[in-house]
Amino acid sequence: MRRQLKRLLSQLLSVGIANLGASGIKTGLCYPFFYCHSCPYAVAGCPLGTIEHAFYKGKISIPLFLYPVLIIVAIASIFGRAICGWLCPIGLLQRVTSRFPRKNRFGKRISEKVPQTVKNKLRYVKYINLVLLVIIAPHLIGFMFTDICPVGFLVGTIPISILNYGEFVPNTFFPIAAVIFVLFVILIFVSERGWCKYFCPLGALMAPLNKISLIYVSVDKDKCIHCNKCVEVCPMGIDVPNMHRSPECILCGKCIEVCPKRIISYKVGR
Fold first, then answer.
1. Which of 8, 15, 106, 204 is the most buried (most CB within 10 A)?
2. Residue 268 β-bridge partners
3. Which phi and psi angles does 176 have, rounded to 5°?
4. Angle at which helices 89-97 and 2-18 cross, to 10°
5. Stated pTM of the model
6. Could you give the CA distance from residue 211 to residue 148 in angstroms, rounded to a whole number?
């Protein structure tokens, strides 16, 4: 439990840093996690929004593209998707809502009715989002993911409309973004870390780097008694005893804490 407390403190610190703009601090940096630069209190930019700007309407800016990508790749090459589990404010939000999918009957029924093969295939949607909505659509049409992003709606649109009550003028994407936001809220209450599993483009960018990251979660399969306690607590729905550097692992450490044989641990090396 001590590790989970440290993780909570890390997530809260990340939220605080993300909103230092409230004190007038602004930077030209990109967050190493998923957050929206449209937030009135944002201190930095969303890496996905920056990538969209790099491909905006037929113009390709390699430096602008490489800037957020290299930041994410550099960090994820060391820590893997630990960013999702230890830093991302949206990960913190889903941590708060995670008890609902586990305890409410509605969430359990939906989870049980969807075959595991379908769930596994749905995980590829986040890669489609990354390529189609963050790169191709902005290049051919204009901003797409930024305009309909549910996180942008949560930390950008809602507070801006409240702070500028009577003056806020929604764009043409507002109705679509509102519907997607409602679906996002339903998703995270029905499926534990549903956004991270199935839809987050930033998670798609970092996931392959779990295969080469310096720090990763290791399982001594020869000593495993297959009690499945690790599987039960895994927020990402991973078959922990049989995983090897799973792209879905967010290094939260829950499996490490519940293993009765202490055969799951963090490892350093490649």
1. 204
2. 215
3. -65, -45
4. 130
5. 0.90
6. 31
